[in-house]
From TrEMBL:
Its EC number is 2.4.1.187. This is N-acetylglucosaminyldiphosphoundecaprenol N-acetyl-beta-D-mannosaminyltransferase. Keywords: Cell wall biogenesis/degradation, Glycosyltransferase, Teichoic acid biosynthesis, Transferase. Belongs to the glycosyltransferase 26 family. TagA/TarA subfamily. GO terms for molecular function: N-acetylglucosaminyldiphosphoundecaprenol N-acetyl-beta-D-mannosaminyltransferase activity. It catalyses: UDP-N-acetyl-alpha-D-mannosamine + N-acetyl-alpha-D-glucosaminyl-di-trans,octa-cis-undecaprenyl diphosphate = N-acetyl-beta-D-mannosaminyl-(1->4)-N-acetyl-alpha-D-glucosaminyl di-trans,octa-cis-undecaprenyl diphosphate + UDP + H(+). Pathway: Cell wall biogenesis; teichoic acid biosynthesis. One of its GO terms (biological process) is cell wall organization. It comes from the Bacteria.
Length: 192
């Protein structure tokens, strides 16, 4: 996809309807993929922290998750077509994963949220294979990364908040040949 640079980040100039099949194809092809859905908060933080920005630049796709990013692109006279949010992308990938019996690993949120999330995922996405589901309040990442590597999930969703989730993904994404995406507070929302 062509990109438009806002606050030093190259955002994909596309729609969710066009991006999703590309992500699904990469998952089917076992192509390692890092998706960042950057809201204005993330973009501002990246603008002020060069190390975080460099890490985001290693992503395969950066999408505009907020009207603030669209406004920035418009001011530059290079408009982006629409918001592509982390939550919508997560839901779309879970629905597709359920239809195609794909596997997903859920990492993040509080233990009580995870306990609520499990039956909701089983109910709403019956065909989805839950490769792992664990809270985001761990001391040692090593056993978690080893588990992700052993499970080889098609998709890993990290709900650790930024910048932690992108740092985690950048550091560990190559243990699978699947898709990795930071989803912020999405597990809290899904759990209701
Ligand atoms: N979180 C976590 N581990 C941490 C810090 C945060 O799992 O060490 C979770 C937190 O429980 C919440 C999510 O990360 O589910 C962060 O949500 P928030 O909406 O603050 O993230 P943002 O969208 O701002 O990145």
């Amino acid at each position: 996809f062509p990109t438009v640079t806002v606050l030093d980040l190259p955002f994909v100039k596309t729609t969710a309807a066009a991006l999703l099949p590309v992500l699904q194809q990469r998952i089917s092809d076992r192509q390692n993929t890092f998706v960042v859905t950057a809201n204005p908060e993330i973009a501002m933080y990246a603008h002020e922290h060069a190390d975080y920005r460099d890490l985001l630049l290693s992503a395969d796709f950066i999408t505009p998750d907020g009207v603030g990013i669209l406004d920035g692109a418009k001011i530059l006279k290079q408009p982006l077509p629409e918001r592509i949010t982390g939550f919508d992308t997560l839901q779309a990938l879970l629905a597709w994963g359920s239809d195609h019996h794909r596997s997903a690993y859920f990492l993040g949120a509080k233990p009580a949220v995870i306990a609520q999330l499990k039956p909701i995922l089983a109910r709403d996405y019956p065909g989805l294979v839950i490769a792992g589901i664990r809270d985001g309040y761990f001391q040692d990442a090593a056993p978690i990364v080893a588990d992700i590597e052993a499970q080889q999930p098609d998709m890993v969703f990290a709900a650790l908040g930024f910048p932690k989730q992108e740092q985690f993904i950048h550091q560990h994404r190559h243990v699978t040949k699947g898709l990795w995406m930071g989803v912020g507070g999405s597990f809290d929302v899904l759990a209701g």
